[in-house]
Amino acid sequence: MLKPVPSLAHVALIALITLAVPGCNKERSFPVYRENPAPKDALPIVIRVHDAPVDVPVPSVFVTYEIDPLCLPPVNNWEGVQYEPNQHTVEVPARRISSTEFSSNVFKDGMEVADYYDRGPCTWTPALIKASFTFVVGERRINAATSALIKEIEVEEGSTTYVEKALTPRISEQTPEWAWTLSRTLFEGLPLTDRQNYFPIEIGRGIDGEAP
Questions:
Q1: CA triplet 110, 88, 33: central angle to 5 degrees?
Q2: Given 53, 164, 169, 209, which is the most exposed site by the fewest CB atoms within 10 A?
Q3: Which residues sit opposite 132 in a β-bridge?
Q4: End-to-end CA distance of the chain, in Å?
Q5: Which of 2-6, 39-43, 46-50, 93-97 has the lowest mean pLDDT?
Q6: pLDDT by residue (tens digit) across 149-185?
Q7: 171 or 47: whose pLDDT is higher?
Q8: 96 Cβ neighbours under 8 A, 6+ residues apart
Q9: Mean pLDDT of 40-57
Q10: Rounded distance, CA 46 to CA 153, Å?
């Protein structure tokens, strides 16, 4: 019996898959985004912890910057996905002001403007600040984090996260352990009797000259 001859469309589909599969396995490489070695445009911030059940450690503070999307290469893959990273996060130093207050500087020009993709200089915009604490409870260590959009700090009162005072992990046998936290909206939706079970961490605008 003669075998059926594949149609032209079927042959074309096989050829397309053959070409596409190696591309899926190819490792993608991207330019290395660089921090500005001499930033000048500082936005001072202050982080305040209220009524914590244990001693408050100095937090690790991170700033996430967003790259101008117009400088990224156009999407030309069959998946229709922009693989080039559009964000970059850097850690900035924090200084203790008191037992429960800390200051830091967010530099609006913290990333180096450069021609990363041969499409002209790429500019950056600071978007998010995150402060992460590691609290010590007996022999345990448990983490809690708060974050704030830059616009919340520049034009609003800042941002507040509420941490469960019991400092119990959200997930059993989690490593590392992270405590339960609530946004301001969720916290304000709690009954008044339940609000006493949480303590607030605030991120707001600091005073010029306070930060390191």
A1: 75
A2: 209
A3: 60, 145
A4: 84
A5: 2-6
A6: 999 998 878 999 999 999 999 887 778 899 999 999 9
A7: 47
A8: 58, 102
A9: 96
A10: 10
Length of the chain measured in residues: 212
What sign results for the dihedral spanned by CA atoms 159, 165, 170, 174? positive
Contact of 124 with 89, CB cutoff 8 Å: no
Q: Which residues contact 200 (CB under 8 A, 6 or more apart)?
A: 49, 50, 51, 160, 161, 162, 163
**pLDDT score of 195 more than 80:** yes
Answer whether 0.90 is exceeded by the pTM: no
Q: What is the 3-state secondary structure (H, E, C) of the chain?
A: CCCCCCCHHHHHHHHHHHHHHHHHHCCCCCCCCCECCCCCCEEEEEEEECCCCCCCCCCEEEEEEEECHHHCCCCCCCCCCCCCCCEEEEEECEEECCCCEEEEEEECCCECCECCCCCCCECEEEEEEEEEEEEEECCEEEEEEEEEEHHHHHHCCCEEEEEECCCCECCCCCCCEEECEEEHHHHHCCCHHHHCCEEEEEEEECCCCCCC
Give the phi and the psi of residue 78 in degrees, each rounded to 5: -70, -20
What is the spatial distance between Cα 84 and Cα 117, in angstroms, rounded to a whole number? 10
